[in-house]
Amino acid sequence: MIFARINGINMHLRVSGAADSRVVVLSNSLGTDARIWDAVIERLSDRYRVISYDQRGHGLSDAPSAPYKLDDHVADLEGLADLLGLAEFALAGVSVGGLIAQGFALRNAHRLKALILCDTAARIGDDATWNSRIAAIRANGIGSISDAIMARWFGPQFRAEHAADYAGWRNMLERSPVEGYIGTCAALRDADLRGQVGSIGLRTLVVVGEHDQSTPPEVVRATAQLLPDAQFEIMAGVGHIPSIEQPERLVELMLNYFHEVGYV
Ligand SMILES: O=C(O)CC1=CCC(=O)O1
Known about the structure:
alpha/beta; Rossmann fold; 11 helices; 43% helix; 18% strand; globular; binds ligand LWBT4IAB; 3-oxoadipate enol-lactonase activity; Carboxylesterase_BioH; PcaD/CatD; AB_hydrolase_1
């Protein structure tokens, strides 16, 4: 566990794997933290140096006052890469983490060797949905909307078969810092990269869960179609966070893709 000052805030980072291995950086989704990647890290870190972090406003990183901008999140990732001296690496992000990854790729093409976008899009939701989520949380807290969010993250089968896990991930969501959560909702509300992602000149793996209700397959497919060179995969039986529901399959897709782009 590492804590580091980046862009004036204390950020929480984790590093696994050998120092001389190729690097993979992982970015979390809204209302979660780096722990959603644990089962992926376990399976990748014998071959790669894997760096995960809690975005500003999430996990053990500081939660400055809302609102945030997508550029704040991208700048944090740039600061993290500078701090760790990462000249080139692979980047994977889920949901807002994937939006941050797209923003990072647009500003730092020279640094990226591979890009994996999970359950994300160049535009997620719209102004009205984010504003009403922000208002509901300001009025009544995250707990007042956590049922609806959990239902978008996980399908009924996961909930039925993994009741303890479901309850644990709900704890993570409900314990999110309110300023951090709202700050990132504002970043999501204001971010629209649809006009820009066509210039990401890197072959990209785009993955979505079949049952994702936050960024459904057709939304994610539309972003994949904006990219010049994307491999689009739908993961059967999975919702919004494939690193939790099917880490084995996600890692298999990532390793095949790394092989294809020569990042081995
Ligand atoms: O909370 C949700 O609806 C899912 C989500 C949207 C953006 C993100 O990062 O997670």
